[in-house]
Amino acid sequence: MNLRILSLLRSAVPASVLVLASAFAHAQLTVEVSGAGSNRMPVAVAAFEGESALPRAITDVVRADLERSGLFKLVELGPAPMGADNPDLARARSRGADSLAVGTIAPAGGGRYQVTVRLLDTPKQLSLGSQAMTMAPNQYRTTGHRIADFIYEKLTGEPGVFSTRIAYVVKSGPRYELQIADADGSNAQTALVSREPIISPAWSPDGTRLAYVSFEAKKPVVYVHSLASGQRNVAANFKGSNSAPAWSPDGRRLAVVLTKDGQSQLYSVNADGSGVQRLASSAGIDTEPAWSPDGMIYFTSDRGGSPQIYRVPAGGGDAQRVTFEGSYNVSPRPSPDGKSLVYVSRNGGRFQVTLLDLASRQTQILTDSSKDESPSFAPNGRMVLYATEIGGRGVLAAVSSDGRVKQRLSVQSGDVREPAWGPQPRN
Question: φ and ψ at 143, to 5 degrees?
Fold first, then answer.
């Protein structure tokens, strides 16, 4: 299992004063893309008519989202304006764009704006679809992400994840902050501040709550935190250690790791802390559960002598071993479709994010770093967010599920760890 987290769980720490802050701006994550997919799709995004009335151009957000995905090649249209009503498809095509997005932004009354976007196939001169929405001026970033998701889905056939959020923990000196940001690292807000460690944030399936472990009570306790109200409740505070929360697909229960009956074992509880149920038993340490869409719970265990990944039915039962390659495989996270699994494996002394195809049993090492932790799938399964270490400092990174696109997310100061990618927003 993650040795750094295990050391935290084994040591009691002094209590701290906890501060809750539902909207506390902090240093933004910056994103660097160091890889790109093969056969990137050339797309042009024309400046939307009327967007000069906004604090920032929506099209800047759209272009940055598409570029960051590594799947698209952004085509420049030149200085001449591109009308949305009768766009010059021949010019876009001559510059190499296979598709063109055009749009308008017009006052809609009450200080709001109507945003309309059209996506066009330039070789066939056909419409690929359109979208309309209203927004307040300060919602330009949210609207840009939604438009980028629209373009992504029309061109790839899969949902985009630009409107999703990520959670992570920043340690700066003695201060720990649980932060939430847009998937591009912008709009960071702090949900929790403490002078004691915060670990293992986990998003509820509807994106309204976070479960996490805090050490403020002199030991690890699992909390469930409402992001809208800032209120929270204790989900697991039994004798000994309470750790590693993972939500069930319906958002009603949590898988947790408790030591109330001895060493670390798997249990499930209702989100309000009631209804505790043991899921598995072993003579070893069972930890790091993760719920799969098919109702299985994957977890790390050293019951066979070395840390490996197992799975057990959500209602409890006999555990099955899942990983057999190598002597150290930890931190399992099933893909949203349940067909694959990412985890951290040790390879020649390097700890790297690895993908396992559950049907074929084929594995692929996705990263070239050496101290990876806490992998987390994007809700469309295309990218994996994880923590790693560069120059002795924790940073976040992301890699595509085929290993071709790589991103790094970092802040100016502080150690960034414990990432979790949130679900698709519900309209």
Answer: -65, -40
